[in-house]
């Protein structure tokens, strides 16, 4: 009798899992392109790095970072929600996310080599 309940439960779970679209496949309506994400992430990481080199206390650094991040989003004409949903989407797709961060690292290294940092 216990096997019957277990099999029934497994079948019900299997039926519910079929036909549902995975949230991994769903792109946000306002998804940023890989190029946009790369450019924004470069700006964010350079800002984080610059703030970490200063001797601000933690609260001051977080406050300054929040302000700079708002300016970065404004400069790129996006919202924080748009960035977050795009970041979440790309972070769930490892190949895309890795590619974006490879370009981010290369871009920061190129700026550093040119003395732009």
TrEMBL record:
InterPro entries documented for this protein: DUF4296
The name under which this protein is listed is DUF4296 domain-containing protein
Q: What residues does the DUF4296 domain cover?
A: 28-112
């Amino acid at each position: 009798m216990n096997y019957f309940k277990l099999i029934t439960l497994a079948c019900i779970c299997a039926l519910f899992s079929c036909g549902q679209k995975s949230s991994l496949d769903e792109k946000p309506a306002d998804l940023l392109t890989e190029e946009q994400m790369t450019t924004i992430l470069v700006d964010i990481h350079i800002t984080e790095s610059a703030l970490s080199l200063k001797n601000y206390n933690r609260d001051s650094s977080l406050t300054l970072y929040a302000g700079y991040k708002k300016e970065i989003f404004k400069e790129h004409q996006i919202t924080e929600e748009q960035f977050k949903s795009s970041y979440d989407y790309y972070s769930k797709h490892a190949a895309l996310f890795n590619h974006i961060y490879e370009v981010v690292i290369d871009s920061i290294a190129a700026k550093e080599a040119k003395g732009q940092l």
